[in-house]
Write a sequence for this structure.
């Protein structure tokens, strides 16, 4: 009986060591994945970064920034705001115009979701009065992504800006905000509408968004 117990103890020890090795290897694979490109590893970089976030947020942020710089992945923008929204806001805003439209749109959505409204209002208002047309264009474009109730009284001025690119962004942002306000109105009216009216409003909402 003692011999059987001893053999079981030995087997259990081997099993525990094997599990530890597997866990260590899995951890190493996930950390390595955080620094790979989107097509270079079976485990995606986002999965690796989320795993890294549990133990080392600074390193996870660095890996996300690297993913954005090297591969222009929209997921990288979402990760940066998830890990450290204030740092992401401070670092991505000055580089906003360097990004392609798809990434600027992703930044706009994440600013709306994660950054306090009063901070966005102050920052965009300052950009809107800048002597640099690129700053005014950024203010106009981001205003189009912000909630319809956010105060942007300067947007009409940008829609009449002397710079054509700023003017176009301002006009587009005003249009988008009108659509958002209309969609919000239909959404608020849904609970009190008849079933027929609800379907009509839902179809209108789909068209607006």
């Amino acid at each position: 009986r003692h011999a059987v117990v001893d053999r079981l103890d030995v087997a259990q020890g081997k099993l525990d060591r094997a599990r530890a090795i597997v866990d260590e290897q899995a951890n190493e694979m996930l950390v390595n994945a955080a620094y790979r490109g989107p097509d270079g590893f079976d485990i995606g970089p986002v999965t690796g970064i989320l795993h890294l976030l549990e133990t080392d947020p600074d390193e996870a942020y660095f890996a996300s920034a690297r993913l954005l710089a090297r591969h222009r992945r929209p997921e990288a923008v979402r990760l940066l705001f998830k890990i450290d929204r204030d740092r992401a806001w401070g670092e991505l805003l000055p580089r906003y115009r360097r990004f392609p439209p798809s990434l600027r749109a992703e930044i706009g959505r994440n600013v709306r979701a994660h950054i306090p409204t009063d901070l966005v209002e102050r920052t965009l208002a300052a950009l809107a009065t800048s002597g640099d047309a690129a700053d005014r264009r950024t203010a106009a474009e981001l205003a189009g992504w912000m909630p319809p109730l956010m105060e942007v009284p300067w947007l009409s001025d940008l829609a009449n800006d002397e710079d054509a690119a700023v003017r176009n962004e301002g006009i587009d942002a005003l249009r988008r905000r009108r659509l958002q306000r209309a969609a919000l109105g239909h959404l608020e009216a849904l609970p009190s509408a008849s079933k027929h009216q609800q379907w009509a409003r839902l179809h209108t909402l789909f068209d607006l968004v």
Notes: Residues 2-33 form the longest helix (32 residues). Residues 18-43 have pLDDT under 50 and may be disordered.
